[in-house]
Amino acid sequence: MLYIIDILGTIAFAISGALVAFDKRMDVFGIFIIAFVTSVGGGTLRDLLIGHTPVGWMNDLTYTYVIIASTIFAISFRSKLNYLRTSLLLFDAIGIGLYTLIGLEKGVELHLHPILCIALGTMTACFGGVIRDILCNEIPVVFRRETIYATCCIMGGMAYFALGALPIDQNIVFLASGAIIIATRLLAVRFKIALPNIYRD
Amino acid sequence: MLYIIDILGTIAFAISGALVAFDKRMDVFGIFIIAFVTSVGGGTLRDLLIGHTPVGWMNDLTYTYVIIASTIFAISFRSKLNYLRTSLLLFDAIGIGLYTLIGLEKGVELHLHPILCIALGTMTACFGGVIRDILCNEIPVVFRRETIYATCCIMGGMAYFALGALPIDQNIVFLASGAIIIATRLLAVRFKIALPNIYRD
Amino acid sequence: MLYIIDILGTIAFAISGALVAFDKRMDVFGIFIIAFVTSVGGGTLRDLLIGHTPVGWMNDLTYTYVIIASTIFAISFRSKLNYLRTSLLLFDAIGIGLYTLIGLEKGVELHLHPILCIALGTMTACFGGVIRDILCNEIPVVFRRETIYATCCIMGGMAYFALGALPIDQNIVFLASGAIIIATRLLAVRFKIALPNIYRD
Q1: Coiled-coil stretches, from where to where (chains A, B, C) (predicted)?
Q2: Residue of C nearest to B144 (CA)
């Protein structure tokens, strides 16, 4: 079940990467690399920082195959991807929910402080997109004020530790904090919720 | 004492990062991340290259707290930060002096060649700013010809090994080479000293 | 012999990096850093991902000296480098051939799947240029549709495993797949061979 969600998230991230690469008019190789780093870049950075090498995607080729298939799919049907926009948004929200918790639990395994665990989770969910934007020569979208993204991951991570301190089954903690990330993200997109504007104009 | 200097350097780097992020009109999350990578990015890259994981800032949360506080401070008082420009420049110079020596001594511990030790020191001091500029979609300022920055670190590193070969107490070697970095940096800013211009126009 | 080829590749990559840095009007320090990452960036990323630390260039200072010498050479004779363009292209083709196979064989040593080995080889050959372009604030040229570059590495890598499955001496496999990379790259430049255009206009 978790594995299926993970694959859905990988597909959503890969397609989002491919779409950005299209806009930059990259060639097929470039599109694949951008799809790849968008999907696995956050987890790779996390693994590097905590010293888990060879990094994650080298231990299970399924991700590589899924990303190759997603890239081919995106290239073939790119003119029709607009119809899928809502599905993709949903997959993406599910993806960041799961990626955050996967990253966070890696930190828990290493007995790191909750703040660092939440940082690792947020990094896993958000830094694939950051690397994608750097390679595409853009200021990372997650740093700009449009709708909250990283904030959802951070809130979900805090919920994970808050709920974990209560006498609740660990699986329920996992599901509930994942649901918080997904729900806040979808609500943020629906109602255009952003961080407070600190600029005057 | 060293620890206090280290914290002052962290504050100066965090505020310099936050200021660049302001100019790019990032949101609060983006400003914090830029402040964070400016402060700890150089040391993180160094730790990755030599295989010291989990990387530095994961072993002492003080840096994270200081950077959060510096970011909040910078956001709150950004219109008044101009008055602090001289203090910030001083902290920054002290920061690169100390960061260079910390990075250099990590190399010495690993019995690396002096050239590599100096490279690690310079990386520790300068690459936080490089990563900041990449994330902000700018050519890194340290590679451009305005005033010398990395050169001060390299000179201080060379002084460290030159003085270390003399029969001088190691603490004095440390202080003297740190002072060289700070002094050359401040003089370079004051007198606009740059590397020789290799371009004709 | 291999070592000499490796050094020739390092020189070609360093000079190509220095030339890009010139165009961005960087100072001497910036030019050296760009030359350095162009040469060793791909191998460094590979070593980080598989956990080989300290990374490659820290174990043999020859590369650093060669890159320093190449940078000085490029700065001194930059107005005459046009005459060398053909030699540089040849060195570069030889370089990516060898770098691909070096990276690929690192994967084989770790008993990684051939797909991952080819990925490591391609990364070794191509990602120095990617990091160079990121630092110079450009979309990486290897992702854009002009002539094939990474594709040559991937084809050579596939040839390595295809030939390796036949009863052929391993040295011949190495030479033949290296020759395929070099030949396809030179032919691609000569005849402007690119990946199929997926854009309509």
Answers
A1: none
A2: C26
Helix axes C170-190, C150-164, angle to 10 degrees: 150
The dihedral built from the CA positions of residue B106, B112, B118 and B120, taken in this order, carries a sign that is negative
Closest CA to A93 of A3, A160, A2, A189: A189
| Domain spans of chain B, in order of start | 2-142
A118 close to A158: Cβ distance less than 8 angstroms: yes
d(CA B138, CA A181): 32
For residue C1, count other CB atoms closer than 10 A to its CB.
Answer: 5
Task: Name B144's bridge partners.
Answer: C26
- Residue by residue, pLDDT tens for chain B (201 residues) are 678 878 888 888 898 888 888 888 888 888 999 999 999 999 999 999 998 888 888 888 999 999 999 999 988 887 777 777 777 788 888 888 889 998 999 999 999 999 999 999 999 999 998 999 999 998 888 888 777 888 899 999 999 999 988 888 888 898 899 999 999 988 888 888 777 777 765
Determine if residue A11 is left, alpha or beta; phi over 0 gives left, psi from -120 to 50 gives alpha, anything else beta: alpha
C152–chain A Cβ distance below 8 A for any pair? no
**CB of C75 closer than 8 Å to CB of C31:** yes
In which residue are the tokens 């690397």 written?
Answer: A131
Of C27, C34, C54, the CB nearest to B50: C54
Chain B partners of C25 at a C-beta cutoff of 8 Å?
A: 144-145, 199
Contact A144, A62 (CB under 8 A): no
A137-196 pLDDT per residue, tens? 988 888 887 778 888 999 999 999 999 888 888 888 888 999 999 999 888 888 887 777
Q: Which of B49, A99, B65, B75 is nearest to B57 (CA)?
A: B65
